[in-house]
Write a structure and sequence with these properties.
The chain is mainly beta. It has one domain. It has one helix and eleven strands; from the N terminus they run αβββββββββββ. The protein has a five-stranded antiparallel beta sheet with strand order 4-3-2-7-8, with no helix packed on it. β3 and β4 form a beta hairpin.
């Protein structure tokens, strides 16, 4: 093989990028998210028909969030003050509310406390549009709250 042929082969290999890695830039998507605390009501299907209130108090600064729900035949039929997540509507999300510690108080329509619990919370960072993309949100795994009568 002549010198010219060898140089041509080396040039061809260099142009094909053999042995090189190229990082592909991926664009960001436009998915939104929000910081949130989620409470999973366990045993809610056994609650008597009526109105119930879940009050969540940030033990660090006394910020209070209140969610009122109506139970009918074991199903959540109306909700005010928070959002439901999931098919059975027993996961209650409090958006833009991220306390480190919180007291959860679940009461019936007469104001009687069904359950009260103080929890230390941890949050999972979420970047729904990719690792280097905004927004960055912080959300809890659902916090279980047994409301079985």
């Amino acid at each position: 093989m002549s010198l010219a042929q060898r140089l041509g082969m080396v040039a061809a290999l260099a142009l094909t990028g053999v042995g090189c890695t190229v990082e592909e830039e991926v664009g960001c998507t436009l998915i939104g998210c929000a910081d949130s605390l989620t409470v999973q009501l366990q045993g809610a299907s056994d609650l008597a028909d009526g109105d119930y209130t879940l009050t969540v108090t940030d033990t660090g600064n006394s910020d209070v969030q209140t969610c009122t729900l109506t139970m009918t035949a074991g199903q959540v039929t109306n909700i005010v003050g928070c959002s439901t997540i999931g098919p059975d509507a027993t996961s209650l999300a409090f958006f833009d509310f991220v306390p480190t510690d919180a007291t959860l108080v679940f009461t019936d329509s007469g104001g009687a406390v069904v359950v009260e619990r103080t929890v230390a919370l941890s949050y999972i960072e979420s970047r729904p549009n990719g690792p280097n993309c905004e927004p960055v949100c912080f959300q809890t795994d659902p916090v279980p709250l047994d409301v079985t009568p």
